[in-house]
Specification:
Length: 56
């Protein structure tokens, strides 16, 4: 039986427009998420909607 896949994360620097960052920070606060968590959620949601990741 193959070993289960590990959930690995990668770090990188993101340059983002200050207006967009302010909007993401507010959205994150509204949903009780960290800014990082909100960005990950936005990316995950977009990738799944466009068929780039398998749906859960």
């Amino acid at each position: 039986m193959p070993a289960p896949k590990e959930n690995k994360t990668k770090s990188f620097v993101l340059r983002i427009n200050s207006e967009v960052m302010d909007a993401v920070e507010k959205w994150a606060a509204d949903e009780f998420r960290s800014t990082n968590g909100q960005i990950l959620w936005i990316l995950d949601d977009a990738l799944r909607k466009h068929g780039r990741l398998k749906k859960k």
